[in-house]
Amino acid sequence: MKEFLVGVLALQGDFREHINILKKMNIRTREIKYPGQLEEIDGLIIPGGESTTINKLLNKYGFKEKLKGFAESGNPIFGTCAGLIILACTIVDNEKQLCLIDINIKRNAYGRQIESFEKNISLDLKQEADNRKFNSIFIRAPRIIDAGKNVKTLGNCNGEIVLARENNILVSAFHPELTNDKRIHQYFIEMIIENLKEI
Predict the structure, then answer these.
(1) Would you say 100 and 68 are in contact if contact means Cβ atoms under 8 Å apart?
(2) In whole angstroms, what is the distance from residue 81 CA to residue 38 CA?
(3) In DSSP terms, which residues pair with 151 in a beta bridge?
(4) Is residue 21 a part of any domain in this protein?
(5) Which is it for strands 160-166 and 152-157: parallel, antiparallel or unpaired?
(6) CB neighbourhood size of 164 (10 A)
(7) Which of 21, 163, 178, 197 is the most buried (most CB within 10 A)?
(8) Which of 178, 190, 174 minimizes the C-alpha distance to 18?
(9) Is 95 inside any structural domain?
(10) Domain count, the chain
(11) What is the mean predicted confidence (pLDDT) over 100-124?
(12) How far apart are CA 195 and CA 26, in angstroms?
C-alpha cells in the first residue's frame, strides 16, 4: 500500500487543530485550499467553523463538483460540526447541501456559543477492549434530526446521533480535534487504509 496523505480543508474554521492531532499521530497532512489539490490526497477532513462562510467559499472556488467526485470515487471524508452541515442532505428550513450522507439536520440546535458544553459519550467504533467514554465538546453544534437506513450510528448523546457513518462519509456533531483523544481520527485513518486496499 502506498504512503497516504490526508487533506484538511483550510478555507475557514479550526483546520489547524485537525492538522495538529494528525501530526501527533505521525500522519502526513496537507492544507487544502484549491479544488485541484483533492487529486493529491487520499482522504479529506472538513472542519468546524462557520458553515455559511465555508459554503460560500466552496461555491466561490468551485469545490462542490470536485468534492462530489472525490466522494463518489470512494475517498473517505470526515466532517465535524460545520463539516457535518456541509455534507448533510438537508437542513431544516434551509437549502439542500452536498448530500453525501443521508441525514437531515438542524443548525445550532444545541444552543449558542455561550451554551457550549462537554459530555462523555460511548462510542461504537468496534475497537477491541476499549470501553472508555469520549469527552465530546459541543460548540453551536448541529443536531441530526433523522438519518437514512444506511447511516450507522457510532456515537450518541442523550439518545441523539452525534457520530455517524454512511459508506465512506464520517460525520460528528462535536469537535474531536479539541481533545487529546485520537480514537475518532484513528477510525477515519483506518477508513482511508481500507479504501486504499481496495484500489
Answers:
(1) yes
(2) 21
(3) none
(4) yes
(5) antiparallel
(6) 23
(7) 163
(8) 178
(9) yes
(10) 1
(11) 82
(12) 19
Task: Kindly report the length of the chain.
Answer: 199
What is the CB neighbour count within 10 angstroms for residue 181?
A: 17
pLDDT 10s digits, 15-43: 999 999 999 999 999 999 999 999 999 99
**What confidence category does residue 166 fall into, taking pLDDT thresholds of 50, 70 and 90?**
very high
CA contacts within 13 A on the Cβ side of 128: 0
Instruction: Report in angstroms the alpha-carbon separations of 111 from 59, 106, 121, 151, 187.
Output: 27, 11, 19, 25, 28
In this structure, the number of other CB atoms found within 10 A of the CB of residue 96 comes to 9
Establish if 192 belongs to a structural domain: yes
Q: Which of 178, 161, 88, 67 is nearest to 123 (CA)?
A: 161
Say what the pTM is: 0.94
Please give the pLDDT value at position 132.
84
Q: Which of 124, 137, 46 is nearest to 85 (CA)?
A: 46
Q: CB atoms < 10 A from the CB of 145, how many?
A: 16
Residue 74 grid cell: 470512494
Q: Letter for the amino acid at 150? A: N
Mean pLDDT of 84-105: 86
Does 1 reside within a domain? no
Q: What is the pLDDT of residue 127?
A: 64
* CA 154 vs CA 16, 62, 65, 166, 179: distances in Å: 25, 32, 28, 10, 18
The x, y and z cell numbers of residue 44, run together, are: 479529506
Structure-block grid coordinates of residue 25 = 499521530
Domain CATH number, residue 129? 3.40.50.880
Q: Which residues are catalytic?
A: 81, 175, 177
